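Hi C.,

You asked whether I'd gotten around to modeling the 333-residue construct. I have! Everything is below, sequence then structure, no commentary in between.
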Amino acid sequence: MNATPEKPAAAKKAVTKKATAKKAVAKKAVTKKATAAAGQAPAKKTAAGKAAPAKKSTAKTAAGKTPAKKAPARKPESRVAMVRRARRINRELAELYPYAHPELDFTNPFELLVATVLSAQTTDLRVNQTTPRLFAVCPTPEDMAAMPPEKLEELIRPTGFFRAKTKSLIGLSAALRDRFGGEVPGRLEDLVTLPGVGRKTANVVLGNAFGVPGITVDTHFGRLARRFGWTTAEDAEKVEADVAEIFPKSEWTMLSHRVVFHGRRVCHSRKPACGACAIAPLCPAYGEGETDPEKARKLLKYELGGQPGQRLKPPADYPGQPAPPMAPPVAAS
């Protein structure tokens, strides 16, 4: 029997190469399936044919720094805790300002009413320096109602907005003369019917001339009430309502004086003297102003800063100096 002729060597080599290639393809497919099953993407090859390292999940930024964690949110203060803190602030202010008082000079309800109307958009000091001449000329509502507007304007000019204030003073004086027998009424609902008299002015008069409790929301009181966390309102009537729910009615008038005193002397609008504030541990707004004790002490005003007060005739227990009277006008040469 004849033997089968052998294949040439080249053909045998080609068959072997083809079989090896098929095995490589099959092996690659198996590897790809296994990778997919594991949920991983196959490693990419670089231009040099080497597998590139897989990207690692990291919290680092492009600069290689891990971003700082945010501070945990501050736990909201409960209503009960806020009320307790607010009342403690009032007690601390009472110890700090046992001599707190209205900073307008007056001897009767009419003078206080007029002085409060004049205090809009100016300082109590400027009003106190202006009213002695005014009350010397027109001490009663009847006198003021009969005053020629031009003359009244000249008397109150130092307080600013003198034309609008003159109109209010003549109007309220005439109303007191015609509707209230020349007497200032002792009820809020009557006071607010007078020209130029709103709730703030009415509460000042009621609390300090009639002993009727009231909360006086001026710019200082509103600012501190918000810094203390007693309210978030900007509207004066809403601030008054919010604060009235925190404190007993018997405290309203003196609370107003204490808060206003503190606002004028320590807790200023632009740069509070936080480092010299006796109630700093109770204040959520601590740090808004100067915290260095030495620098903060230089920001204190009036008697706390060794300066004159606002009243020309302060109460007997006031520890500071009286304000100086207005300098006489310089005579024309």
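If it helps when you're writing up: The mean pLDDT is 85.

Thanks,
B.
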